[in-house]
Amino acid sequence: MKNKSNFLLASTLIGGVLFNAIFWEERLALNLFIYSLFIIAVMLLNKSISKSAKFGLYAGAHLFAAVLVVVNNSDLSLAAYYISLLAFIGFSHFQQIRTVFLAIVSAVFQLITAPVGLLQNMGNAQLGTFNLKPMLRFFRYIILPIFIIIVFTSIYCAANEVFAEAVNSILNKIGNFFYDIVHFFFKDININRVLFFCFGLLVTAGLLIKFISNFIERLELLFKEQLLRLKKTEHTNGIWVEFMRIFTGNLPKRKLGLKTEYIIALISFASLNLLLLSLNLVDITTLWFSYEPSGSLSANVHHGANALIASIILAMVVIIFFFRGNLNFYSKSKPLRVLAYTWMAQNFILIISVFIRDGYYIEFYGLTHKRIGVVVFAILCTIGLATVYIKVARQKTLFYLLKVNGNVWFVLLLAFATINWDVVIVRYNLAHTASISLDPDYLLSLSEKTLPILDQNRAILLAGPSVAPREEVAVQSTNKQMLYQIDTRIRFFKERCAQQSWLSWNLQDWHAAKYFEVDGNEAK
């Protein structure tokens, strides 16, 4: 135990120093990959962590995400990095966990409890005959009271502006007092960097040191993937039956409660099928084969797609609700299953309508992140419906849905992060100026990795849309303003390259620097 604590504390200290050295005033790029290598190396050397196949799988997934940050350096690749890091940490410390969601939650708890975990390991550490446990005992008594005081002080500050100003004034005075003391003894010390080092220390401790108990693992072990028929009693009705009582009164309490629930579900699915059939017929006749844009196309397509996606999600919730328990084992439930499968099939048709709507939107106005997002959500809905079908057909539980969909979403996140979406959007829109209403202002708002493409296509941007807008659009920047924006962003990019070291290196910046002929000394 002592040796383990010594190893983790030494690793945390090294990690804090590394964090401070590679992230201070740097962009997130190659330095993230270096930090990930350090975290994985410490995990491999930590003998208390089992090196199972799951450990290797999520370590590899996280390293892949770190590489994507270096290659694409996009917001999506950064999101994939953080999520994969949390999943790796969660599965490493709690290997009995089976879902990505709970692995991420466990890792977040790890980070939140990092100060406590750090103090606990400092108390267990020993250097020869010397240990810090007696010195740290005092902190154990004040950590929880301090946390409670901070929470309630925040609440009282939000409720009373005068009190908030007084607290802020007191904190500023205390901060200035300690700042003056430190600055008096250490005139050349950078307080901000010291605080940054402490932050890196806590982050590294939260990733490396397991503090919270295995209660999340024990809780998850209670959930099964396969539904079992349970004998209902008055004391085991649960929240679902209480929810049904809101709409059906005391019907579920009677002996024919299961039959009553079956009749309610039958009526619900029959009605919903008829309702959705009418909507699908309207979409098929007016959208699929003979669509004529009218009115505000942007509002009609965008809001329509959002509403349909929301309805598909609600449809899955309804199916999960009715097929949550013993109704799956009801001997006369075949008609209900047929209606449920029919409704799922109709929702698949609805998803096709979403794709067609978004396709028209892209055809008329080009690609944007939101329009790509609609496609992604529609894909997720398709996968969700497929897993809901398996749940009903094979009598699976809600936990099964969470487990499978969590894994699928995690894989899709990594897959989508491999694509440089900003570059794809700019290339597509500039290549289709003859058919879309080009929005130069939107293209100019995208990341710096698109600057070489925009610079190469100045003439197209200045020419504006080659087709008339199909509806009223916002006033666009003048040619002079657009030229100023492009030149200003290029100048800022060159200045940024000059201020950053090799730790901020990424492939996209390198390509852009090479295009704008930023020399090695200037770009470092």
Automatic annotation (TrEMBL):
This protein's UniProt keywords: Membrane, Transmembrane, Transmembrane helix
Residues in a coiled coil are: none
Asked if the record carries the keyword Transmembrane, the reply is: yes
Its transmembrane ranges are 7-24, 30-46, 101-118, 138-159, 194-216, 262-282, 303-323, 343-360, 372-390, 410-430
Q: Carries keyword Nucleus? A: no
Origin: domain of life: Bacteria
Q: Please report a single Pfam family linked to this protein.
A: DUF4153
The name under which this protein is listed is DUF4173 domain-containing protein
Specify the species.
Answer: Pedobacter endophyticus
What broad taxonomic lineage does this protein's source fall under?
A: Bacteria, Pseudomonadati, Bacteroidota, Sphingobacteriia, Sphingobacteriales
